[in-house]
Amino acid sequence: MLAFHIVRSKISSVQPGKLETLDDLLAQAAHYAEFCMRNSGKMAPTLFLIGADGPLMFVPASLVDADEKDAFATTARLVCIAHAATACVMALEAWMKTATPGEKMDMTEPPSESFDRQEVIVLMGESRDGQKQKFLPIIRHDNGKFFNLGETTVPGMDKMEGRFAQILPPNQPDASTRELAKIMLKVKGVKTAKPVGTVRLPRSRR
Q1: 144: alpha, beta or left? (left if phi > 0; alpha if psi -120 to 50)
Q2: How many Å apart are CA 202 and CA 35, to the nearest integer?
Q3: Strands 87-99 and 2-7, bridge-based pairing
Q4: Whose CB has fewer CB within 10 Å in the chain, the N or C terminal residue?
Q5: Given the DSSP bridges, would you call strands 194-195 and 130-140 parallel, antiparallel or unpaired?
Q6: Which one, of 89, 84, 107, 85, lies nearest residue 97 by Cα?
Q7: Nearest Cα to 164, choosing from 86, 59, 47?
Q8: Burial class (CB in 10 A: 0-12, 13-18, 19+), 7
Q9: Cα Dmax for the chain
Q10: Residues in contact with 180: Cβ distance below 8 Å, sequence separation at least 6, in sequence order
Q11: Is residue 5 within 8 Å of residue 98, measured between CB atoms?
Q12: Burial zone of 101 (CB within 10 Å; 0-12 exposed, 13-18 middle, 19+ buried)
């Protein structure tokens, strides 16, 4: 589980042709997050991208410590280069705490240890036109089982920071750079990212 300080001011139906913009990708990531939460009560960190090979997604095999998180971020950047991504979204479970206007945020206290912490799905989107973020509160029953994803009331950050930010390369990679990234992924044993589709939830779960 990742943590954020915020100051307040497999897939059922594959339709890759419908994913064309960063907003499309953010919506897809939100659908996928809900699909995972309803089926397993959790969601592994996932990279979604739109590139030269169409919409793709990449999920790490394991993410148990800081080293593996760093490795996932590095691999995600390589995947974006290899597939000439024009937009990407990192989707993660996280703890979040907020501060109301005029309230001083205690930056020394980890959100996971905060009394008023909130469990959320964080969607961090990037394109060469800018960045967009969404924070979707995870709503659970009293027994801890997943109920639904709420609507975010927290504005996006002006600039994303951390290991999972700046995943998209600043410039479109040329053919030789893409080929080098593909070779590095092959050496690392990373298999081709899986096609992204539109998650179709049963009507009773919408």
Answers
A1: left
A2: 10
A3: parallel
A4: C
A5: unpaired
A6: 107
A7: 47
A8: middle
A9: 54
A10: none
A11: no
A12: exposed
Tens digits of per-residue pLDDT, 8-48?
A: 223 233 354 578 899 999 999 999 999 988 888 888 889 99
Q: Is 46 helix (H, G, I), strand (E, B) or coil?
A: strand
Q: Which amino acid would we find at residue 69?
A: K
* Token pair 């995972």: residue: 36
Q: Where are the domains of the chain?
A: 2-8+16-195
Least-confidence region, from 48-52, 114-118, 167-171: 114-118
Q: Which one-letter amino acid corresponds to residue 127?
A: S
Query: What does the pLDDT look like over 93-151, one tens digit per residue?
Result: 887 766 555 666 555 544 444 556 788 899 999 999 989 988 899 888 888 888 888 87
